[in-house]
Design brief:
about 80% helix; single chain; mainly alpha
Length: about 325
C-alpha cells in the first residue's frame, strides 16, 4: 500500500505521542515509592479494569458473543505476561535499579520482537539482522557494566536485582508482544481498541485476585499524602498510558507500514530517559549515553535491514509490536 507523506508524518507523531505517554510508566514507581511493586500493580490495573469496564459496557453483549473459551484463555495469558507480571517486574526494576537502567533494558523490546519475527515466513534473515544484534549486545554490556559498578559501590544486591527484574520485564513483554500480534491477526474482524479494553477487564480481574496477597504482604503505614499520590499515579497511568497511549498507538499502526510502526516504541525509551533525568536532576552518565546511542543505532539498523526485503516481490515484513497496555 502506498502511503503519502502526510499520513506518514501523522503516524510518526502518533507513535511519538504514545511513547511519551508510555514513558510515564517508568516514572510512576518513583512518584509512589512508598508503595511496593505489587501494590503499584494492583492499583494501576484495578483503575485500568474499571475504566475499561465503563468504556466496553455499551458493547458488552456484542463483544462477548464473538469470544470463545480459547479467546478468554488467551486474554488471561496476555494480561499476565503483558500487564500484571510485566508491571511487577518493571516497578521492581525501577525502584531497585533506577529509571534510566530500566528504560534502556526495555528499549531493546523492538529488536527482541523482530528477532523472533525473523522466523516467520518471508521475514528478514538473522544474517541481515547481525549488525542490529551486535549493537544490541554492546548496549546490554554498557548497562550491565554500570549495574555491576553500582553493585560494587552500594555493597548491596539492589542494582543487580533491579537489572534482573528489567530483563524479566523485557522477556515477559516480548512474549506478550509476539502472542498478541498473532491473536490480533487471527481475530481480524476484532477492533484492536475493543481487544485492548477486554484485556483491561481481564487484567483488572487479575488485580482483584492479587488484592488479598497485596493486603497481606504489603506495608500499609503510608501517610495520607502517600495515598493521594498513589491514587493519582494509579488513575493517571491507567488513563494516559493504558487507554490514551494505546489509542495513539493504534492510530499509528493504521498509518505506518509494519516495518516502521514496530520501531516507534523507541520513543518510549527516549521519553522515559528524559523523565528520568528530569526527575533525578542530572544528565546521562557515560555508560547510559553510550548505551542509548547503541539502542538507537540498533533500531535504525533494524529498520534498514527490513526496508529492502519488504519492498521486494513476495517479501513480508516482520511483525511489529502490538499496543502495550
Amino acid at each position: 500500500m502506498v502511503r503519502n507523506g502526510n499520513a506518514t508524518l501523522t503516524g510518526v507523531l502518533c507513535g511519538a505521542g504514545a511513547g511519551a505517554l508510555w514513558g510515564l510508566v517508568f516514572l510512576a514507581p518513583e512518584l509512589a515509592r512508598a508503595f511496593d511493586p505489587l501494590q503499584l500493580t494492583v492499583g494501576r490495573y484495578l483503575a485500568y479494569g474499571l475504566i475499561a469496564l465503563l468504556l466496553v459496557a455499551p458493547r458488552w453483549k456484542a463483544l462477548v458473543s464473538r469470544l470463545g473459551r480459547q479467546e478468554w484463555v488467551a486474554l488471561g495469558w496476555l494480561a499476565l505476561a503483558g500487564n500484571t507480571l510485566y508491571y511487577i517486574l518493571l516497578s521492581g526494576a525501577v525502584q531497585m535499579g533506577g529509571i534510566a537502567m530500566t528504560s534502556l533494558v526495555v528499549g531493546f523490546l523492538p529488536l527482541a520482537v523482530t528477532i523472533i519475527g525473523s522466523r516467520e515466513r518471508g521475514a528478514v534473515s538473522l544474517a541481515r539482522l547481525a549488525p542490529s544484534l551486535l549493537l544490541c549486545a554492546a548496549g546490554a554490556l554498557c548497562i550491565g557494566w554500570q549495574a555491576v559498578e553500582a553493585l560494587a559501590a552500594a555493597a548491596t544486591l539492589a542494582p543487580l536485582l533491579g537489572l534482573l527484574c528489567a530483563l524479566g520485564a523485557l522477556a515477559s513483554w516480548t512474549a506478550y508482544a509476539v502472542s498478541n500480534a498473532r491473536w490480533l491477526a487471527r481475530l481480524g474482524d476484532m477492533p484492536s481498541h475493543d481487544w485492548n479494553l477486554l484485556l483491561g477487564l481481564v487484567t483488572g480481574a487479575q488485580s482483584l485476585v492479587l488484592l488479598p496477597l497485596a493486603l497481606w504482604l504489603g506495608d500499609w503505614t503510608q501517610t495520607a499524602a502517600d495515598w493521594r499520590m498513589f491514587a493519582g499515579v494509579s488513575l493517571g497511568v491507567a488513563l494516559f498510558a493504558s487507554i490514551a497511549g494505546n489509542a495513539l498507538w493504534n492510530r499509528a499502526s493504521r498509518l505506518l507500514p509494519l516495518t516502521l510502526v514496530g520501531q516507534m516504541i523507541l520513543f518510549e525509551t527516549l521519553f522515559a530517559l528524559l523523565y528520568a533525568f528530569a526527575w533525578e536532576g542530572r544528565g546521562p552518565t557515560l555508560p547510559e549515553a553510550v548505551a542509548f546511542v547503541f539502542v538507537v543505532a540498533s533500531v535504525l539498523s533494524c529498520i534498514a535491514a527490513h526496508r529492502r526485503p519488504a519492498t521486494e516481490a513476495g517479501a513480508a515484513p516482520a511483525p511489529a509490536c502490538p499496543p502495550q497496555a
